[in-house]
Amino acid sequence: MDGALRVNRSTKTLRELALEKLRDAILNLRFKPGERLVERHLCDQLGVSRTVVREALRHLETEGLVETLPHQGPAVARPDPHSIEEIYEMRALLEALAAKACAENASDRDIARLGKALDRIVAAYERDDPALVLKSTTEFYEVLFRGSGKLVAWEVVRSLNARVNFLRAMTISTPGRDKSGVAEMRRIVDAIVARDASAAHIAAIDHVQAAARLALQYIATKE
Questions:
Q1: What is the three-state SS of the chain?
Q2: Closest C-alpha to 57, from 40, 74, 32
Q3: Which of 57, 185, 186, 192 is geometrically suited to a Cys-Cys bond with 103, CB 3.0 to 4.6 A?
Q4: What pLDDT sits at residue 29?
Q5: Could you tell me the domains of the chain?
Q6: Dist. CA 179–CA 198, nearest whole Å
Q7: pTM over 0.90
Q8: Interatomic CA distance for residues 195 and 190, integer angstroms
Q9: Is the CA virtual torsion 182, 145, 100, 157 positive or negative?
Q10: Dihedral of alpha carbons 96, 188, 138, 1, sign
C-alpha cells in the first residue's frame, strides 16, 4: 500500500496531492468506514509531513469523508442510516427531476452523449476499475443534468459529490451491481430516448432507491 499511496512531486502542492491520494483511497475503500487514520502511518505511506496530512484530513472532514472520534482521532466516516436516507432522498428528487426534463427538453445530441456516457460506465465495470466507474458515473449525471437544463440542481448535486461517491463506492462493490445498476440506468436512458418523461422520472427514482437499499445493507454489515 505504501507505494500505491506515495505522492509524486508535480506542479500541484503536496497538500493537494496528499488530499487527492487520501480521498481516492477512501472512495476506493482502501480505507474502510470506521477505520482509524493514524497520522504517523499516513506520513510514511504518503511521504509527506504531519502538517500536510493534518491539513488533508481537515479538508476531508469538511467533505464528510473523515470524522474525528473522541479519544481516538480521525477515522474514515461511517455514515449513519439517517444521513444515508437523506442523501438518497435528495438524489431521488433531483435526478428524477433531471431525467424527466431531459426526456422533455434535451437535444438529440445530448441524448446521444448520455448513451455514450453509459457505455463508458459499462466499459469501466468490464475493466474492473472502481475508480473509473465512479468517474464515469459522475460524468453520466453531468450529461443528464446539463441536457435537462437543470444547472442549479446540478450544482447542488456537485456539492454532495464526495458524500455521494463515498456511498456509491459501497454500492458498486456489491456483487452483481455491475449488471443491475447498469440495467437500471439503461431504463433511464431508454425512457429519455423515447421522450417518455414519466417513465424516465420513475426509472430514476427506482435506480436511486435500489442504490439506497444497497448502501444501507453495506453499512449494516460493517457495524
A1: CHHHHCCCCCCCCHHHHHHHHHHHHHHCCCCCCCCECCHHHHHHHHCCCHHHHHHHHHHHHHCCCEEEECCCEEEECCCCHHHHHHHHHHHHHHHHHHHHHHHHHCCHHHHHHHHHHHHHHHHHHHCCCHHHHHHHHHHHHHHHHHHHCCHHHHHHHHHCHHHHHHHHHHHHCCCCHHHHHHHHHHHHHHHHHCCCHHHHHHHHHHHHHHHHHHHHHHHHHHC
A2: 74
A3: 192
A4: 85
A5: 2-76 (1.10.10.10), 81-222 (1.20.120.530)
A6: 24
A7: no
A8: 9
A9: positive
A10: positive
Q: What is the pLDDT of residue 219?
A: 85
Cell reading at 58: 481537515
Taking the chain (223 residues) in consecutive chunks of 10 residues, what is each chunk's mean pLDDT? 62 82 89 91 92 93 90 89 94 97 97 97 95 94 97 93 90 93 98 98 98 92 71
